[in-house]
Amino acid sequence: MSILLQMNGISKIFGSTKALDNVNFELKRGECHALMGENGAGKSTLIKILMGVYTKDSGSIFIEGNNADITNPHDAMHFGIAAVYQDVFLAPQLTIGENFFLGNLPKNKIGKVNWTEVYEKADDNLKKLNISLNPREKLSSITIAQQQMVTIAKAVYQNARILIFDEPTAFLTNDEKEQIFNIIRKMREMNCGIIYISHRLEEVFEICDRVTILKDGKYIDMLNINETDENVLVGLMVGRDLSGMYNIKSHAKNNYVLDVKNISAISNNVNDVSFDLKENEIFGIFGLVGSGRTELLRAIFGIDKRIDGTVNLFGKEVHFKNPKQSILNKIGFIAEDRKRQSLAINLSIIDNINLPSYKNISTMGLFISQSRAKKNALEFVEKLKIKTSGIEQNVESLSGGNQQKVVIAKWLLIGANILIADEPTIGVDVGSRNDIYKIMEQLTESGVSIILISSYLPEIMGLSDRIMVMHEGKNMGIIEEKDFSEEKLMTLASGLEIT
Fold it and tell me: How buried is 135 (Cβ within 10 angstroms: 0-12 exposed, 13-18 middle, 19+ buried)?
């Protein structure tokens, strides 16, 4: 395979921070090349330079052997470079066809939009990638995975030769992930080059040919996928041994802190579910997307309305009608979408950590003690090892792992006895994942009980004391740790009984 893209000696400095230091990267035609590293390693900066969002301070970029001067996104488009992100940047209120030609709708001789051409061309280009979608459908009516497919087809139509995938499967089902992978395979057949960024190592080994590792803004190594393994990659990325990442100690006791009986929720995705939570336990809930895992916990926490069933907290029946009541009873909820549901993304670390606790550090509920707020924030930044330039830093500028630590901190500050963690490591690098797992271990040792929702099998099996599997809103069974197996979990999650 011939070289499609060559990035040589790329450096970028922001103030006193050297984000990239003499980084090299190459991409061949028909190749899927993983770009890996912890958050802060420089991956995003390198990609933004390639996309024309940032300009490099030094170094050179060659596309098909020719010097490519990329100073803005229009230049990147001119050179055939496009990106697919986990958050799709399209217009949801418009049709697929309109999004396909956004800003460049074909016109007829009298200057009116040629709608026939819009939908016929969109349809033809979707079919080239074996994508079965009606171009007249509104974008808002299709799944995130299908929206990503539209983005890919649009890029191919615009003659993209280099396509960047940045955490594309974070919120996808296994079937949807496989659809995206099939499109990537199709694009490789078309001699396009794919740059694949993901924190999920198993995906890299499934779809990629080579991998380049960055650490602290520097090029570390480039390896052929078939000549390496996960432990080697983790070691290069993190610089320390994480082979025992999932081997956390169990501290579960036999007395129960939460007893849920026959819960049904107004979402119609939770039907007659029962389970219990032990003191100091990590209780896992596994299921495919749409199984009702999140809806179940939202109904218990008081976000969604439940229509049947009982919940006993420390032996006393409770019915939380809103999250405030749950928080007063020392239950915390780490939402799957931390940026929209767990954080005030435009506020500082100090504001976010103290957010549920301002009543406790104010006089008559009116005057907040800034000194106590600062003390709280400093305490948890140190305790959870949150990497930050200071507690006044905006949480939006933190890495995914450090954002998640801020979320955990705010619930620890209220003295949470029970912590609900919904997909707590989505978009979190392997080093930060290890940190979060160790925090969870320490929490259970100190008396906190955790309900862990995760669709990542190594995580749910590695951390949980017991696992409940859900399918279409129902409890398919609770498996003890000694009986854990991927086959059992996937069988139950698919709605089948274990024989």
Answer: buried
Q: Report the amino acid identity of residue 388.
A: T
Domains of the chain: 3-238 (3.40.50.300), 256-493 (3.40.50.300)
Identify whether the C-beta of residue 350 lies closer than 8 Å to the C-beta of residue 344.
no
pLDDT at 364 over 70: no
Q: Are 252 and 279 in contact (CB under 8 A)?
A: yes
- Note the pTM of the prediction, 2 decimals: 0.73
Q: What angle do CA 30, 228, 27 make, to 5 degrees?
A: 25
Contact 430, 414 (CB under 8 A): no
Using one digit for the tens of pLDDT, what is the confidence trace for 277-327? 999 999 999 988 778 999 999 999 999 998 899 999 999 999 999 999 999
> How many Cα atoms are found within 13 Å in the side-chain-facing hemisphere of 378?
6
Q: How far is residue 109's CA from residue 283's CA, in Å, rounded to a whole number? A: 65
Cα–Cα distance measured from residue 166 to residue 149, given in angstroms and rounded to the nearest whole number: 14
Q: What is the pLDDT of residues 142-176, one digit of tens each?
A: 887 788 888 888 888 888 899 998 888 876 777 78
